[in-house]
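User: Second chain of the day. Same drill as before.
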Amino acid sequence: MSLLSAAAEVRKNAHAPYSGFKVGAALRSVEGNEYRGCNVENVAYPEGTCAEAGAIAAMVAAGDSRIAEIAVIADSPAPVPPCGGCRQKLAEFADPDVVVTLATTDGAELKMTVAELLPGAFDASFMDRT
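Assistant: Same format as last time:
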């Protein structure tokens, strides 16, 4: 199954009772394992957690630490980019040239790199004063 198909499949599990906006994400780690995530809203945090963050959390929980590629899908008129927080998470766990496929349920796709999604990303080198 392709990452985009996996993202579309897990999107069905999203819990979005407030926005109705379901998002699915699937990533492949550099070790070759696949991880999935979907957005989850709740009454105390109606904007919820993001699909990308869920997939990254699943990857880390399983013991992998680097993203080789990722796909994100939503029912929207155009491919939806990750939020700012997820862009930073992608920059933390993926090299700048890792491809991020953004897609709609209607079949539109946009491929970008992590560096294109978050130019000038903050990383640990900014804290190194020695």
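The longest helix spans residues 51-62.

User: Great, on to the next one.
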